[in-house]
């Protein structure tokens, strides 16, 4: 079994912090309470604690042209674009889903929340083939509220990491 890995968002300094740095170089009060923000034990507590974000075990690239030389780890709070191919009724189709990576409501599986689905058919799929009616059921908003990542057989080439909800809050507009 793999050991869980984390990173953390420092809300005060507005930067991402490597989890190893936090656990090796910061005291426990800084991480989990009791930090006085430099005002002494009697002064106001103005410090907000880092937000931990667990890595999913998936990897992706930071741009879809794969100009990024290294795969990056996908973590909770990342906004990702997933790509997959299908052949409905024998016609090639490219699919994309953009959403925020998070735990499901039970805390047992990784999901994409509030996903947005799009597709492209280089050759349009006809409504009828050899007298058989072809119908397409596209996912509606309720279907996309929580899509399990294990539904996809993903490789790092299938995932583009667009950013995360803390460093790139404007990406939430694309998802919502």
UniProtKB/TrEMBL annotation:
Residues 5-172 form the YopX protein domain. Gene3D superfamilies: YopX-like domains (2.30.30.290). It comes from the Bacteria. InterPro entries: CHP16711, YopX-like_C, YopX_protein. This is YopX protein domain-containing protein. It comes from Enterococcus plantarum. The lineage of its organism: Bacteria, Bacillati, Bacillota, Bacilli, Lactobacillales.
